[in-house]
Amino acid sequence: MKTLTALFTCLSTCLFASTAGAASGPSISDEPAAPIRTTFDCALAKVTIEKLICRDPQLKQMDMEVFRLYRLALTDERAVPPPKKIIVDQQFWVDARSQCGADPDPKACAIRRYAERAHQLRQGSTIARTKDPYRLTEGPVAFRCNGLNGAVTASFFMMQPGLVYLKWANGAVTLSQVASDNGTRYTGKDAQGSYSFWQSDDAVVFQKPGAGEMRCSAQATD
């Protein structure tokens, strides 16, 4: 659990430093931070979701991070799926992200799409998980939770606000970090109801809609 504790400590205390580094790399403190870029030209953006990304710093960060992970995964001949399939999957993912423009909550939809794709790329590629000290993502970490069949895997996003993407056998959810007097807490909702994910003093607790709190233990970390 020492590695897990270190991860959550960083998520709690290094958020601002990690975000700044990921967005612009090392910089001199008395110079203005470089603007956050996107993987496409905002001056030419025509799709509704691209226009939203260009206006939203959090989505800009997620856009650049997914593209970074994608490029790294393409260099990994041992990636699962292999690079040729990753290219095809990315094209389908871009189309799915564009459809968020018609969603009742376009930003929430885009965040889910980005979080899911980053999780997939990191899970399938060792290079994507380990290269670049200025990355915005960590994980996936696998947990076993009392009362839940199978593992819950979690990928963490160090930005403002922080995010965690959780995936288990028959579901997935993206939660936002909220203020907490004790540990690191994430909450969120979907059509099923409210979720929470909380870590403190080496304890991890996951709660799904209509269920009690489940204590979890980490199975593996990178």
UniProtKB/TrEMBL annotation:
The keyword Metal-binding appears for this protein: no
Ranges for domain C-type lysozyme inhibitor: 143-208
Leader sequence segment: 1-22
Transmembrane segments: none
Protein name, entry field: C-type lysozyme inhibitor domain-containing protein
Keyword annotations: Lipoprotein, Membrane, Palmitate, Signal
InterPro entries in the cross-refs: Lysozyme_Inhibitor_LprI, MliC, MliC_sf
Organism this protein belongs to: Pseudomonas prosekii
Gene3D superfamilies tied to this protein: 2.40.128.200
Top-rank taxon, per record: Bacteria
Keyword flag RNA-binding: no
GO CC term, one of those recorded: extracellular region
